Amino acid sequence: MSQLARNIRASVSAVAFCLAVAAPGVASADPMRVAFGDIATVESLHLLAALERAKEKGVDVQMTFLKSEDIAAQAVVSGQADIGVGAPYALLQKVKAPIRIFMQLSTLQFYPVVNTEFYKEWKDLDGQEIAVHSRGSGTEAIMQLMADKNGIEYSGISYVPGAEVRTGALLQGNVKATIVDSSGKRVLEDKAPGKFAFLPLGEVAATDEALFANTDYLSANAADVEILVEAILTTWREVAADPKAVIALRDKYKLLPDATPDMVADIEPYFTEAAAVMPLNGGGEAAARDDFDFYTVSGALEGEPADLKVEDFWDLTALDKVTAKIGTK
C-alpha cells in the first residue's frame, strides 16, 4: 500500500469518529445514520462540512464509511442505515427496493485512462480487464457505455473503491486501465507525464452521486431531511462561488486531520474543477430525466427513457420545499 493510501485510510477513522459525535440540541430522538460507500478524501470534504452544518442545526448525523456504494445501498434497504450516497438506479428498478433518491450531489466528471505501455485507445481494451469504483457506480456505467460505443468487451471488471486508490494503483503498475477523477488526472500528469493516455469520452450528463433513503424514513423525518438538504445546497453554493472556502471549512470543523501537505494543496484545484459538476439546485426532475437517458444506454436501467416515471425513482418533497425557501441557485 502506498504512503498516500495509508494516510487516506488513517484519516477515515478520525473523521468517522468526529462525525459520530452527537451535536447539541438534536432535532429528533434518533440519529440520522448516513452510509458512505467510499473513504474520506479531499473530494468529500464539502459533504463532510455540510453534515457538520446540519449537526449545528440540531440533526444528529452519524456517518459510516463502507467498502462500496452497493454495500451502502444494501445498508439502507436493510434498515441498518437511513441515508446512502450513490446512484442506486438498478436496485430501484430491478429489486424495487423501497428507497428513493431525494437530491443530486454531483454529476459525472471522470477520465478513462490507460497505461500507454499496454494500450493506446479504446479498441485496445477489447478482451482486457479494467478497474472501476464499485458495482452499479457511475464509473462502471461510463466504462460499460464506452465499451458499447466502441464495439468492445472487457474480460473482467475489478472493483477498486476510491479514485485516489485507483490512481495509486496505476502509478504502481497494479492497474493498467481504469477511470479517475480530476485530482487523479492531475496527479498522473504531474508524476508520470506521457505514461498515461486519457481516452475520449464525449458528452455525459448524469448523476455521479446522490442521496437516497427509505421512503418511510423520508416521510417520518421530513424536518431533519430538509435541514440536511439545505445544509448541502448552501455549502455547494458557497464552494462554487469560492473554491477556497473548502479550506476554511476543513479548518473550522477539523476534517481530514491526517491529510498530507499534497492532499491539502489539492483542495482548491480540485474544487475549482468540481464546481462545474456540483448541482446548485439539488438536481430535481431535470436530473432524473438526464439519468434516465444515460443509465438506459449504459444498461443500469431498462426500458425507454420517456416511459420511466420520476416518482418511481425520486422523492422531490424535501428538495422542493428547500428550493422554494432559498431559491433554485
Shape: globular
- Name of the top-level CATH class of the largest domain: Alpha Beta
User: How many DSSP H or I helices?
Assistant: 14
User: Which regions are unreliable across 5 or more consecutive residues at pLDDT < 50?
Assistant: 1-26
Assign the CATH architecture of the largest domain: 3-Layer(aba) Sandwich
Q: Count the strands?
A: 10
Sheet-strand content, in percent, reads 15-25%
Give the strand order of the largest sheet, numbering strands 1, 2, ... along the chain.
Answer: 2-1-3-10-4
Mean pLDDT: 89
Protein name: Nitrate ABC transporter substrate-binding protein
Signal peptide: 1-29
Keywords: Signal
Main location: periplasm
Task: Characterize the structure shown.
This protein is 47% helix and 16% strand. The chain is an alpha/beta fold and 329 residues long. Strands 2-1-3-10-4 form a five-stranded mixed beta sheet, sandwiched between helices. It folds into two domains: 3-108 and 207-326, D-Maltodextrin-Binding Protein, domain 2; 111-198, Periplasmic binding protein-like II (D-Maltodextrin-Binding Protein, domain 2, 3-Layer(aba) Sandwich), CATH 3.40.190. The protein has helices spanning 3-20, 45-56, 69-78, 89-95, 138-150, 163-172, 182-191, 215-220, 222-241, 245-253, 261-265, 267-274, 284-298, 317-326; strands at residues 32-36, 61-65, 83-86, 99-107, 111-115, 129-132, 156-159, 177-180, 196-198, 207-214. β6 (129-132), α5 and β7 form a beta-alpha-beta unit. The chain has 14 helices and ten strands.
